[in-house]
Known about the structure:
Immunoglobulin-like, Rossmann fold, 2 domains, five-stranded parallel β-sheet, four-stranded mixed β-sheet, disordered N terminus
Amino acid sequence: xxxxNLVCGSLVxxxxxxxxxxxxxxxxxxPVNVLSISCPVAQNAQSLDAAPVIVTYPGPxxxxxxGVVSTTCTPTTGSRFPAGTSNVTCTAQDDKKQTASxxxxxxVTRVPRLSATRFVAFGDSMTEGFVQVCRTTTLxxxxxxxxxxxFLSRVSELRPPGFSxxxxxxxxxxALAARYAAQSITVINEGNGGETAAAGALDLPxxxxxxxxxxxxxxxxxxxxxxxxxTQASAIPTVLSSLRTMVQEGKRRGMTVFLGTLLPQRKGACxxxxxxxxxxxxxxxxxxxxxxxxxxxxxxxxMYQAFSGQVDTLLGADGLHPSEAGYxxxxxxxxxxxxxxxxx
Length: 344
């Protein structure tokens, strides 16, 4: 018997009859409409005090399937999610019982908060926010220092503290307010151009009484060193004694005190007075300021280390005061120290 007859005599024959007889191609089955589901991206939410929060997320995207397709997600959108990371599973099913599933995560983080919200930035023109260029006068040495300090004193009388929009306290408050949006953050600029650490130590109690801060940002002493030209090193003991007095005053009032090191200066610049004796006296002063922070147990904000090697960009034209980028760097450094020490 021919092989074709054998085929027609088999089970295939029944299929062939349905399609019109032996020797014809069988009917191709209707392709299944595959069901698929795609979940939304991971969701993030914030919670005060780590309490569960309601999270509303977009529904999954479904394609394919036959007839009516239903979807379910567990936990459902609008559920309360605890702090931490939770898994959500979504499933789709069509009329032919085809199913497809996907998943994503919902992460709830605690809203960051600070244990102190009211800060006083205390210091000299570095805090007040001076950005200056060199004068055309040719005064040198002590005459230049005295003339410059007199100029700063006159300018300081003409404008109130906090006037400078580029000062680090202004930039710092903006950064803190952005991160700690659930709190009202205040950074008061009490910079006083030309002030020495010795004068600051006498004035600080008045400032703290008036401003009632919870934390003190302290950066002062360069004017004491400049006043010692050409033997700036002789002023370092006065700087350290004054800073210690101010640190202890803040601690006595229950404040967190952040102590900054002195900034470097650009050698050869019109106000790079630290180099008038050809010795970088700021370097020796900062060694003792670091020791002071350690012995008093207060956070150190190492301005010198961050500025060193970048004085051409972080210092202004006068080689003494920061550029706007430098003031931003100062704000960034205090911001990092504050978040590390005070964030809850």
